[in-house]
Each structure stands twice: as C-alpha cells, then as structure tokens.
C-alpha cells in the first residue's frame, strides 16, 4: 500500500484539509429545521401503521404474528338470514382494533402478514402523548392515518409489473 | 468652582483626575474583555458548525441563535458550584481568576488605534508576553487543587506545553522587536507604516501563531484537555461560574493573542493601503480574521499526541525561531 502513496510537497495535506473545511463552510448546511420545516419522506417510510377498516376480515393473523402482542382485536359474530331463505350466513364484525405504540417495535410483520391489505405503513411519525397509556391508538385514529399513506413509488425501469396489475 | 471660573470645565477637571480615568479605563477594558470574546465564541459555534455542514445554534435570541452564549452564561450562573471534598478549597477557587486576569491585563496595552488604548507601556510587548505565561499558573493551580489524577495530568501537560512553546513565541516576538527597534506596541505598529512585518517575517508569523495555539491549548495542540483520555484536563472538577471563567479565559486568550499577532505582524490598526477604514475597526477586523484562524484549524486538524507536540516544538519550532532571529540580526546589521 505504501508504494501507492503519491509524493506530495511538504504541507500539501495540511493545506488540502483547510480547503475542505472552508469549502464545506461555504456550502449550505444540510440540516433541516425540523419543527418549522417538515421533512420530505420517501413513499415507503415506516412511520406508523394505519388500518383500512373496510379491508379487515378479523382473521387475527396480525395480532397472532405480532412479536410483542401490541395489537388488540375484539369482534363479534353476526348472522344474516338470506332473503331467499336457507341457512343463516355468519360474518365477523370488528368492534375494536387498537395498536399499543408504546409496545410496538415497528417490525412491520403485521403489515406483511395481512392477507387483505388492511394494514399500511404511513410516513406519519409525529404522534407523541403525555401519558404512556395514551399511546394505545384505537381504530378511528388508525383509520385517519390511512389518508396519509403515500402512493407506492414508480416501478424501476424494466421491472416486472405487479401480479395484481397483470 | 475656582477652577471652573478660571476656564477649566468640570469635565476637564473630572477627566484629569487619576482615579476617575483609572476607573473609566478599567470599565472599558473589562467591557471589551466580556463582549469581544463572546463574539468570537459565537463565530466559533457557527463557523465550526458550518464547517461540519451543520447549522449550529439557531433558537436562542430568535435570529440565528445570536444569544446562545448569553443563555449559556445565564445557565452557568444558575449551576451549583461544586468543590470536591478532597480539593484544596482556596487554591481551587482562586485558580479561575489567575487564569483569566492575565488576559485582561494584556488587553490593557493592546492599542485599537494610535489614540485608543488604555495604556502605552514602553515595555509593551515584554509586559504582554510575561502576562500571557502567568495564565498557565492558574491551570496548574486548578489541576493540583482538584485532587484528581486527570486534572493533575492535564495541568502538568499544560505546564510542559507552556515551557516548550513559550520559547519560540518569545523568540519570534523578539525578532519583530529587533526589526522595529522598540518594545512599545504602538511603536511596533508605527514601524510597519511602509511594510507589514508579515512579509519580511513570514516564518516568524507562522511560528508565532503555532506557539499561540499551543499556549492557549487550542486544537490541534489541546493535549492538556484531551477529552478522550483525561476527561477535560485541569478543568475536570470545575462547574458553574468557575468553569465559565476558564472558558472566558480561553476566548479572551484568543482575542489577546490575535491582537498581539495583529500588532506584531499585520500592522495593528494601520489600514490596508488605499482603503481608508478607521483604526479601531481595522484592528478589530484583524483580530477577528486571526481568531477565525483559531476556529478554522480546530475544525480541520486532529489532536497531536503529547510526544508529537513536544517534538514539534523542540525539534522544529525552536531551531527555526533561532535561525530566524539570527537571520533578522544579520539583516539588521548588514542593511
């Protein structure tokens, strides 16, 4: 490696160091003034998990896969008599869906495992509370966050189209 | 009253009174010592930040954090003043003052223009260099009285550094004195009417600045406070206002040494030929430019090891400065 070192005049390295710091000083700083300037986040930012209630079939997959059991699901069964007669059909109705963000470690397994696209990653990250109990957010709040979900990024050039699209 | 009738106004009478003049001069010098280092400190905050592609303080005082150091000062005043149980109380408490006051004393003789100065000593540069080396006694006192091994190591490093770097500093200054033919700071400035001494004495300027960096324990010569190995050197045990005094001594020292370097090499209050700027502004501008150098080098260079630091002085700076003074002596006699 030593043979690859270029020969330099005395003090050239020192001068180069000075020029680097001076150049950096004259360029604009990269800092974003956060509370005043909201950060521009990429579409797939993992900020918070949002729930599209209409898509949820209460299969409990998310709550069972959750590594630290931070998802609460309550549901009940309703039966509907078909108009033309016959056996009554049953359907599960979601009563409560809550995620305890004091426990959640944002692993995203629930989003991955959801078979009906009811859970999404939203780039929202600004939801502090004064009490840890308040960190359990109910399905209304989770529903609100679905409106902040960004559209997925464009496919890369030459990529296969998604299965659903083809 | 009798004097007033004789045509001497009350003001003349007042301003010729020794004690009144002394008081006014003291107030002016202390105000200068309290304000200008704050400015330098602010530039350090911002300059250092921008050199690292950051913004630095932005909140205090609304506009680009201009009041950050004022806020820091208020914070320091509020802090508890802790003295370690094993510390030598009196020495411990006296040390910050001993470190800080010499730099105030230097500002007394620093001329802002040919009429703006607190005192024009015939032995100005001698007084300044003598004072600048007193400060390290404060650091030694702090290190010894703290009863802390890191403090002691830091203080001894500071003392060793002073011995090593005071020599090239004094010799470089002596070379300027030889060329100017006077010890008075104003005399040295006036001797540069034709040509600033930085031109004929460029190596001396470099030696002087390197030694000044070491004397103030500024990076890259900040081995005495090397925070990654001895915490904060002699200042480890200090809190609150006493620590603030040490900080003020550091920034006051930057102002003082920048001022001395400006007087010795950059023509002090003399304007750049062709650009008429009043002397005090010129002097402050030069102090600012040299102080920026302190900040710039801090952002750029890593800390020297203790042995490298000693080696650099004894094997490079001192021989160079001896050669320099010989050269100046020969030139003085020959031309």
Give an overview in words:
- The complex is a heterodimer of chains A (166) and B (335).
- The longest helix of chain A has 15 residues, at 12-26.
- Chain A is elongated.
- Chain A has helices at 12-26, 61-65, 109-113, 139-146; strands spanning 48-51, 71-80, 89-100, 119-122, 136-137.
- A three-stranded antiparallel β-sheet of chain A has the order 2-3-5.
- In chain A, strand 2 and strand 3 (89-100) form a beta hairpin.
- Chain A is α+β, with helices and mostly antiparallel strands and 166 residues long.
- Chain B is mainly α.
- In chain B, helix 3 packs across helix 5 (89-109), helix 4 crosses helix 11 (240-265) and helix 5 packs antiparallel against helix 6.
- The radius of gyration of chain B is 21 Å and the shape is globular.
- The model of chain B has no long low-confidence stretch (mean pLDDT 85).
- Classes of the chains: A alpha+beta (166), B mainly alpha (335).
- At the A-B interface, helix 1 of A face helix 3 and helix 12 of B.
- State the secondary-structure class of chain B: mainly alpha
Largest sheet of chain A: 3 strands, antiparallel
Instruction: Give the rounded overall mean pLDDT of chain B.
Output: 85
**Through-space gap between termini of chain B:** 59 Å
Global Rg of chain B: 21 Å
Q: What share of the residues of chain B lie within helices?
A: 55-70%
Sheet/helix structural class of chain A: alpha+beta
Taking pLDDT < 50 over at least 5 consecutive residues as the criterion, the unreliable ranges of chain A are none
Reported by name, the CATH topology of the domain at 48-146 in chain A is Alpha-Beta Plaits
* Dominant shape of chain B: globular
Low-confidence stretches of chain B: none
Shape of chain A: elongated
Strand content of chain B: under 5%
Distance between the termini of chain A: 54 Å
Strand content of chain A: 15-25%
Give the beta-strand count of chain B. 0
